[in-house]
Amino acid sequence: MKFSPSEPLTVGFELEVQLVDSETLALKDASEEIFKEISSPLIQKEFLSSMVEFVSSPHTQPRGAVEEVFRAIGEVAALGRGKGFRLAASGTHPFALPEEVKITKNERYLRLLEEFQEVLRNFLIYGLHIHVGFPDEESLINGYNLFVECSPLFLALSASSPFFRGKNTGIYSYRSKLFEQLPRAGIPQQFNSFSEFGELYTTLLETGTIESLKDIWWDVRPRPDFGTVELRICDAVPSPDRIEALLSLAVMVAALSMEARTTPYYHQVHLQNKWNAARHGLNGYFIDRGVKKKIGTKLLELVASYGKRFGNLREGARILERLTTKPTLAELQIETFRREGRLKSLVELSLLEVQG
């Protein structure tokens, strides 16, 4: 497996965005309208025709990546004002029905649909994926191991999908539970070396189980072809500040991994920590190498010990400190529905308000 090194601790991200009707805020099949009018490497087609993905280039500072993507979002939002659609970002659309949503006509997507049937038809889900750069194979796999351990922290901070099919599921990130139904998804195992990961990848490839790394959908995924670790556990979120905080946290975790070897830990603990984050968000508990603490507390510990040591992370660290005491989008959705009883209000909370 070829490794292409990246500049250490560079960061980029991908944000999956809903296209919704300007009036009803229901999902709208508008992606073709976008690609007829706009051609940009920052804007890509996705699984659903009511969905697009915004992709940043690698950046040395999290804020630069966020600003780049939100400029592209602004361009699409300006087009949407004349075409009758708006952009929203949350882990699920609160009242859309899977049977009413159209899948993009793409050979790969149709092949996946044939394999996964009803499981994939329920995939009205939207995520935020973060890439962090590593210089060599062993630093990448060590970083990957630490990201596996810390990934529930990112899920708790981004949780934005308690509603699905018009119902409150009782789970702050229901998106993460839907995604786990696929094979090769969810919290993956840790590895003792890069070669061990390579052996697993070769087994999956040579048995025809996968065609490429893109067919491995773990919550954390090594990308030796990019020289990055890709964190895939986050729900989509609309706030530039929250995205910057998540990117800053990713750089902190990567930097920490470069200072010491990460010893693989009990997989069952990682599974439990993810459940706690998906179910309770920042109020859930985190088993930190045998010590039980609140997820928010663990986040603050990371920020206190790491976030302020790097000039390019100081603003992100300040945002992180603030967000650990603020409600997540999931909590805001639950409280808003309790108060108003309107599903449309939940989409309003996730609208991307940008200048076009």
Summarize this structure briefly.
The protein is an alpha+beta fold. It is built from 12 helices and 13 strands. Helix 4 runs parallel beside helix 8, helix 9 runs antiparallel to helix 10 and helix 11 runs antiparallel to helix 12.
- Uncertain segments are none
**Taking all residues together, what is the mean pLDDT?**
93
Number of domains in the coordinates?
A: 1
- Element order: H for helix, E for strand: EHEEHEHEHEEHEHEEEHHEEHHHH
Query: First CA to last CA: what distance?
Result: 42 Å
Assembly type: single chain
- Summarize the amount of helix as a percent range: 40-55%
Shape: globular
Q: What is the correct CATH architecture? A: 2-Layer Sandwich
Instruction: Determine the structural class based on helices, strands and strand pairing.
Output: alpha+beta
Number of strands: 13
CATH class: Alpha Beta
Number of helices: 12
**What percentage of the residues does DSSP assign to strands (E)?**
15-25%
Describe the structure in your own words.
- The chain has 356 residues and is of the alpha+beta class.
- The protein has a single domain (11-349), classed as Creatine Kinase, Chain A, domain 2, CATH 3.30.590.20.
- It is built from 12 helices and 13 strands.
- It has helices at residues 31-37, 62-83, 107-121, 137-158, 174-179, 194-206, 240-257, 267-280, 295-306, 314-323, 329-340, 343-349; strands at 11-21, 43-45, 51-55, 85-88, 127-133, 163-164, 167-168, 185-186, 217-218, 220-223, 228-235, 285-288, 291-294.
- Strands 1, 2, 3, 4, 5, 10 and 11 form a 7-stranded antiparallel sheet that branches. A two-stranded antiparallel sheet has the order 6-7.
- Strand 10 (220-223) and strand 11 (228-235) form a beta hairpin.
- The protein is globular.
- The protein starts with 10 loop residues before the first strand and ends in a 7-residue tail after the last helix.
